Amino acid sequence: MKLSEYAKHLLLASNLEDKLLPPSKHWDEEVEFNSIRIEKPNRDPKLQFSDRKIKIPRLEHLNLESNRGLTLHHFANHELMAIELFAWAILAFPDAPKSIRNGWIKTIGEEQIHLKMYINRMNDFGIQFGDLPLNYIFWKQLKQFNSLESFSAVMSLSFEGANLDYSQVYAKVFSYFGDQLTSDIMLYIFEDEVKHVKRGVRAFEKSIPGDKNSWEHYLSLIQFPFTPRRAKGYLYFPETRSLAGLDAKFTKELETYEDEYTGRVNLESVKKFGLGSGLMRKNRLDSQSNSD
């Protein structure tokens, strides 16, 4: 199978099982491959995009198993969108360096594992994937993806970057409520997200102009109303950005960044837990090869 055929399969297949087909280790050679930009993925009726807004349960309500299931459903939706959009990037940017494409392929395989982990665990809590409306916040950014650098800025440095924070927060809260299994799932995913952001940094940093630093370049690649607020969670863990290869300037600028949307985030439930800035980690990162 050609890589382009695999990417089309992930985007055009309607059922979830097909979207979970893992990538091959070997691909047939592409003879002629022009940029293809698919506007919307094909999905079964139960997994269609919805404009209905469903709030994620507050942290203090995660003592209830039903709310844990609803939370994981929210996260699973992000994983499915990520699988589709990294496949989209393979088709949209056929001239991307082989190292970047290989990174996208690895990310797809890891996101598929995450999605299955979330689905299996939410099933334990009585929730089936598709029981709730699925937003399409990642797909709404399609018009921003004018280059692989802008794609990396939005998907890797922003959405996956924010998950460095969210996965830590939820790992701590699940552990607080005695649910170590779900906490461990969040830590497994956190460690993969470090690799994902690192891959995005590699794609992004090669294009930084000589007259700009990394933060300035990042700002030039995202379009309002999308702002750096999307690149961090309820709490900010700067050490995670260093683990992912972001420089100190970028890490500090993101930490201090605020805009008109910042005050909308309710931090009261976060403060109740006194989570602190220390990381829960890491049993896999230290053994990862540099090829990631």
Automatic annotation (TrEMBL):
Transmembrane segments: none annotated. Pfam families: DUF455. InterPro entries: DUF455, Ferritin-like_SF, UCP012318. This is DUF455 family protein.
